[in-house]
Write a structure and sequence with these properties.
By secondary structure, this protein is an alpha/beta fold. The protein has one domain (2-23, 76-122, 142-254). 38% of the residues lie in helices and 20% in strands. The chain is built from nine helices and twelve strands. The chain has helices at residues 29-40, 44-51, 55-67, 77-80, 84-89, 96-105, 141-159, 178-184, 204-221; strands spanning 2-6, 75-76, 106-110, 114-116, 121-122, 163-167, 186-188, 191-196, 199-201, 233-234, 237-245, 248-254. The strands form three sheets. It has a five-stranded mixed beta sheet, sandwiched between helices. Strands 9-8-12-11-10 form a five-stranded mixed beta sheet, with helices on one face. A two-stranded antiparallel sheet has the order 2-5. The longest helix is centred in the middle third of the chain and has 19 residues, at 141-159. The protein is globular and about 55 Å long. It starts with a strand and ends with a strand.
Length: 255
């Protein structure tokens, strides 16, 4: 099984290193550098508008983009992100053997780098999919990446067992020709809910938490079959056989 996990806006600026493993070069490192070069020439105010963020965050990220053209130390992608999913993936506690397994099975989506393997060496950044840049031919990044990433993801899944465990947020589907992916790859998309009375609610923070925790579960257990996902439990959430279907297993937390 291949796993698709979204990147995170929150990133570590402090250098993090992986134990006894060699870092890899991102497949789209040249494209990422070109996009970062575009961003570095904009003012802080322009970056704030483009990214829809505060001036403080924009200033931080202008400095980050400028570091792409210095001899700045890089860190493995799986340790660079620090959003909700990554807090519960707890990559800092993965062993070298865990990381090598993850390197063969986990893909991380990124608006700047396209697709990343966990041990790809990257620099901190912030980017949004609707940003239009000269290096993207004036198109937004969703359009820029779609033709580049779709075949990569499909080919990786087919080279494995043809199964993709979709643990990314829906926004990142727009980086791919998702209709093609669905047609050519067997997608398993776990869904996470909180029970409130007689209804089920999907809460964004809780869903991200479970996506990270399930990614860790797959790595720890070296899972290779979709049915094995049903054994996943985390902080009161568990598989429910009464609802959902095999390609959309439901995991429910009762308050």
């Amino acid at each position: 099984m291949q796993i698709l996990l979204a990147s995170a806006k929150i990133m570590n600026d402090k250098l993090a290193t992986a134990p006894d493993v060699e870092l890899s070069i991102p497949r789209f490192a040249d494209e990422a550098s070109s996009l970062a070069r575009d961003m570095a020439v904009y003012s802080t105010e322009q970056i704030a508008e483009m990214l829809g963020c505060s001036r403080q965050i924009a200033a931080q990220n202008k400095m980050r983009f400028m570091r792409f053209f210095e001899d700045a130390p890089e860190m493995p992608a799986v340790l660079a992100y620090h959003g909700q999913a990554y807090k519960h993936l707890k990559a800092e506690t993965l062993t070298a053997a865990d990381l090598r397994f993850a390197q063969e099975h986990l893909w991380i989506t990124s608006f700047l780098y396209g697709l990343l393997r966990p041990l790809d060496a990257i620099l901190p950044y912030r980017m949004e999919g609707n940003v239009e840049l000269p290096s993207a031919g004036g198109r937004n990044l969703f359009a820029f990446w779609k033709s580049r990433l779709t075949d990569v993801l499909i080919d990786a899944a087919k080279a494995d067992d043809g199964i993709l465990v979709h643990l990314a947020t829906e926004e990142y589907q727009h980086l791919f020709d998702w209709q093609r992916v669905r047609k050519e790859v067997h997608i398993i998309q776990p869904l996470f809910y909180v029970r409130q009375g007689n209804s089920l609610k999907m809460q964004a923070v809780w869903a991200k938490t479970c996506r990270g925790a399930m990614t860790r579960f797959i790595i720890d257990q070296r899972l290779t079959a979709p049915a094995d996902l049903n054994a996943f439990t985390y902080e009161g959430i568990a598989y429910s056989s009464a609802i959902g279907e095999p390609d959309y297993p439901h995991f429910i937390k009762s308050k």
